[in-house]
Amino acid sequence: MKVLLAVDGSECSGKAVEEVASRPWKKGTKLKIFSVATSRYPVWFVDPAFAVLAAHMTEVHEHHKILDKLVEDVKESISETEHGKELEIETEVVDGYPKEEIVREAKDWDADLIVIGSHGYGNFKRFLLGSVAQAVVAHAPCSVEVYREKGQQ
Q1: 23-74: per-residue pLDDT in tens?
Q2: Distance between CA 128 and CA 62 in Å, rounded?
Q3: Distance separating alpha carbons of residues 17 and 70, to the nearest angstrom
Q4: Taking the domains of the chain in order of start, what are their residue ranges?
Q5: pLDDT digit string, tens, across residues 116-153
Q6: What phi and psi values does residue 90 have, to the nearest 5 degrees?
């Protein structure tokens, strides 16, 4: 079995990590801890003007470095658990847009399951930012488990 665990460092992502770490997995299960570095600015905000584009690229590069550390920390914490010792774990951080890259990676890696957290944004924020979890569920080539913190709407 191949499990793609999408992480972003948020509390809801942490819930997904906890669930994966606590579950007994069949020996030989492969886990890819995956994250996507992106700008905090929506696509339509990035102006072709060099200054804005340069700032965008610098921000993505810094985000990538932070996520590299995050996925390594998650790998270490899962591999130290009783059930994590049974997993073949790898990590990857790519640049792009999470909605697209998570689905692309699931297809390219031939994942059997995607595990992801949901921020639980309200209607207005979800309209502005979009829901990564919702997009992944709608377009994934495999099963998807979505975790969120208790009490989220």
Answers
A1: 999 989 999 999 998 765 454 444 444 444 444 455 667 777 888 888 999 9
A2: 24
A3: 12
A4: 2-147
A5: 988 655 444 433 334 788 889 999 999 999 987 665 55
A6: -135, 165
As a whole number, the mean pLDDT across the chain is 80
Dihedral, CA of residue 6, residue 131, residue 129 and residue 34, to nearest 10: 10
pTM equals: 0.81
Question: Residue 34 in contact with residue 4, Cβ under 8 Å?
Answer: yes
3-class SS letters over 15-65: HHHHHHHHCCCCCCCEEEEEEEECCCCCHHHCCCCHHHHHHHHHHHHHHHH
Rounded to the nearest 5°, which phi and psi values hold at 63?
A: -60, -40
Residue 69 structure tokens: 């550390």
What pLDDT shows up at residue 92?
Answer: 93
Q: Among 2.120.10.30, 3.40.50.720, 3.40.50.620, 3.40.50.300, what is the CATH number of 2-147?
A: 3.40.50.620
- Report the run of H or E that residue 127 belongs to, with start and end: helix 123-129
